[in-house]
Each structure stands twice: as structure tokens, then as C-alpha cells.
Amino acid sequence: MAEAILKYDLNDSDDAMAHMRAIKSLDMALALWDITHNTKKSIEWSLEGKELDKYEVLDLVFDRIHLILEEHNIKLDDLIN
To answer: How does 41-69 read in b/e, with b if 16+ C-beta sit within 10 Å?
Structure first.
């Protein structure tokens, strides 16, 4: 049986950041899956019957991405320094 043990020095800021990224990896993967598989359809539905300019559509896209990240408890400031 293969085994791996990851060890972090949580007193070291770089190691603490790497640790946070490791423990959030499943949440990040789920958020990315949601963004790539569900976002287009949900935005298409929200645009039905509306006349919006390209900037309003871009705002909808990024609002949806931020909502998905929030739903998966992904705080980018905690993962990227």
C-alpha cells in the first residue's frame, strides 16, 4: 500500500499557506467543477428575456463565480498571498 504524509511547519508563513491550500483542495476542485459545468446554463437561464450590454453580462458571470466560491467556502485571500 502506498502512503504519503505531508508535514507543514505552521509557524512558517509559506508552510501555513501551503497547508491551507492542501486542506482546501477538495473545495477548490468542487468549485471549479461547478463553474465549468453549471455556470453557463444558470447564466443563460437568468438572461432569458433580458436585454443586457456586455458589461452587465460580465458582471453576472463574475457574480456567479464569486457566489460559487463563497458556497464552497473558498476565500482567495486566504490561499494567495
So the answer is: eeeeeeeeeeeeeeeeeeebeeebeeebb
8-15: Cβ within 8 A, 24+ apart: 13/81
Residue 20: inside a domain: no
Q: How confident is the model at residue 48 (pLDDT cuts 50, 70, 90)?
A: confident
* Residue owning grid cell 492542501: 22
Q: Which domain does 40 fall in, by range? A: 26-79
Whole-model pTM? Answer: 0.81
In the chain, the number of structural domains is 1
Q: Quote the cell numbers at residue 35.
A: 463553474
